[in-house]
Amino acid sequence: MRAFLPGKMPFSASRVRRLLPGTLLALLLLQGCGRFGPHKPREYVWVWAKETYLHDRVAPVNNRVATVVNGERLQVIEHGDRFLKVSTAKGQVGWIEEHGVIDQRVHDEFAQLQQEHEHDPAVTTATLREDYWMRDAPGRTSDRFYLLPENAHLQLLVRASVPKPIPPQALPLVVERTGGTAKNTPGTPPAPDLEDYWLVRDSAGHVGWVRGRTLDDDVPDAIDGLSESQKVVAAYVLRTVNDPDSNVPGGQVPEYLTLLAPWQDGLPYDFNQIRVFTWNVRKHRYETAYRERDIEGYFPVTISQQAFGNQQEPVFTFRVASTAGASIDAKTGLLNPGPTETESYHMEGVIVRRIGEQALPQVLASAKEGRRGRKTNRRRRR
């Protein structure tokens, strides 16, 4: 006979078979209850690098398991030391360096920029000289995300001017002598130069900041060489004239309003000169119909067609400073023009007149003076 401990019952095979279904049912119920409990939200990151790889392990010797590109979303599975274990939309799993991705906060900042400026009118357009990343704020230390390809055509929305970082080697050194020994220590840094950034929108609707020196303003070649060492900030088509003998396809030659400024960042205005180019049909060339210098002009510029008598003529309008007071916000870099007034001009053939005034343009006045001088000289020679 088998002996048993007091108070204990033997677990025979038949008893185990009777208890097993109930135990399994309890385990299933517990597992089901866990499914309805709170879950940790999924974490995502986005690739900002142009192209990088996922690796099967964090080790000097590893294998590439997938290629990921700029803008791709990855789900975070595990955090490591400077590395993340992630999964792609195709289910590929691997490790990626943290500095090659942006987190949800930065992604939301770009999404907010796009939403806020989705319908903003462009003040001008430009072409990107080289690959460049959009940033979430003006400046070289801001976060970057979308990679814009070389020759991308961009709409320019607003300009900001921020301090350019000063490299350590540019800091002045101060010699300090302590106990007979000389020691060089960095001195007071000089006032930093300003560099321009533009808030831009690409063809996909993405919005972000791009350094101004990487952009070439869209200026027609036919008038770009007439800028007289000034930078053409923008060029707007006022109208077209018919000249079948011109080298323009179709013979429809555009006439332009151009805005010019010095080749300098951080200016307290958007442009300081306007110039109207009209087309001489007899000589088949561009000529200056109007020019105004030494102004402090600001975007936006509007172009329209209005009726003057029985003729539809181009009209252009812009803002100029009425008093000194323009400033650049030290925090955002945005330009605050201060008090401004609006100036409007319209064209009568090749003559440009300011609306509300009867004064002839400067260029025509100069031409009249020249004609008077020539007549006087002819009289003297007689």
What do these coordinates show?
The protein has 382 residues and is α+β, with helices and mostly antiparallel strands. The chain has three domains: 44-102, SH3 type barrels (Roll); 103-166 and 192-216, SH3 type barrels, CATH 2.30.30; 219-372, no CATH class. The chain contains four helices and 26 strands. The chain has a five-stranded antiparallel beta sheet with strand order 6-5-4-1-7. The chain has a five-stranded antiparallel beta sheet with strand order 15-14-11-8-16. Strands 17-18-19-20 form a four-stranded antiparallel beta sheet. Strand 12 (173-178) and strand 13 (181-186) form a beta hairpin. The model is unreliable at 1-9 and 358-382 (pLDDT under 50).
Question: Which characteristics define this entry?
Answer:
SH3 type barrels; 43% strand; disordered N terminus; 4 helices; alpha+beta; disordered C terminus; 382 residues; single chain
Count of runs of 4 or more consecutive helical residues: 4
In total, how many beta strands? 26
Query: Could you name the ranges where pLDDT drops below 50 across 5 or more consecutive residues?
Result: 1-9, 358-382
User: SSE order in H/E notation?
Assistant: HEEEEEEEHEEEEEEEEEHEEEEEEEEEEH
What structural class should be given to the helix and strand makeup? alpha+beta
Overall mean confidence score, pLDDT: 84
Number of domains: 3
